[in-house]
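Hi both,

Apologies for the delay on this - the queue was longer than expected. I finally got the zinc ion-bound model through. Below you'll find the protein sequence and the ligand SMILES exactly as submitted, and right after that the structure tokens for the full complex including the ligand.
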Amino acid sequence: MIRRSRLILGIGVLLIAIFVMLSISLLSDDEESTDGPTHAWSYDGETGPEYWDEIEHLGSACGGARQSPINIIECFTENVEEAVLNFEINYAPYTKIHDVLNNGHTIQYSFERGDFVVYNNERFDLLQMHFHEPAEHTVNGIRYPLELHMVHRGKHDNFLVLSIMVQEGLSSEPFQFLEDYLPLQEHEKKVVHAGYDLNQNLPEILDHFIYAGSLTTPPCTEAVEWIVFKYPITVSHDQVSALKVLMPTNNYRLEQDLNDRTVTLHIVE
Ligand SMILES: [Zn+2]
């Protein structure tokens, strides 16, 4: 009997361990899928952004005072000498994209490890990039047709997101490379395993705004350094449309109150 109850206890412990491991693996390491499997949220209706705080009652920060996105008004920002903060982008000329996923909230490209940025002497590893249509942050009241988020993670469950605004104009070759893997059905994933020069997706002039904010999707965790580039990159109308049709309509969160936060402007010579 003792042996049997020990066996049952052992199986119990094993099952709990498997459950915990599964839960951890479901809490994937990116901005868009940090929502747990049981929490349904959307960009529309009763599960839309104005209700995220209620839906995500367990550990949600969606009603917090340091939320993202915000409207960045340049004349209210503080000018900071670049030397004060060190910010360095370390993207290899051939960053490997592991896969592309339509997760039902956005189109997301995940990277193989190796690329990173350094901010304030801390390393943040590049995980993934995804899109919002139209943009979430507004700059001087302008909402661009698309915003690209490059999500990086630090060592303390903190994030750094590079935000790149996209305007419509001439078509972009690097964007075409990305879109060659589309379309994708909802929850469909394609393995890419191909090299790509991410630097080509950065604006020519790297002036940027910095502020402390949150993930823009539930659970809206307030542990994100936001680096929002001032100038947009250009892609064609068709390239914007190719993403738009695959994502939920208006997959953006409205601007949040700045409260007591400061936004700094960094001019890159
Ligand atoms: Zn995002």
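Main takeaway for now: The chain has one domain: 32-266.

I'll put the files on the shared drive as well.

H.
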